[in-house]
Amino acid sequence: MGKFSKRKGYRVENQLVKKIKSYGIECRRQPMSGAIPDFPFDIEIQEPRMSIEVKARANGEGFKTLEKWKGAADLLCLHRDRADTMVLLDLSLFLDILSEAKKKEPYNPPFNYGGYDTNIYKKEKK
After folding, report:
1. What does DSSP say about strands 50-52 and 75-78: parallel, antiparallel, or unpaired?
2. Where in the sequence is the domain holding 88, given as residue range(s)?
3. Strands (E), 38-119
4. Is the residue at 55 inside a domain?
């Protein structure tokens, strides 16, 4: 990765960290932006514990189809057979949901998000 790409990634990740913190949500940019095996993602939200991978494209390459599919909807669910469904939503909606959730009882999901072992709840083949 070139120097310009690293700088752009650092800049975008820092902007996101500031935006997330402005909603009262504790987070941090990971050391070396996911280059260390113990810190494989770009940003970590403290509570609830979540990891964020950031992709930035000046021309939107790879994002335009997703934006078209989502349109004016709040969420875009991306489903593939025999895989977890992914959800795409605007950052502001995501942060609103997180900040509202912070006001309520702590929620500890039965599995962890973002690269943690989610296979423990999948049916075993007999």
Report:
1. unpaired
2. 3-105
3. 43-45, 50-52, 75-78, 86-89
4. yes
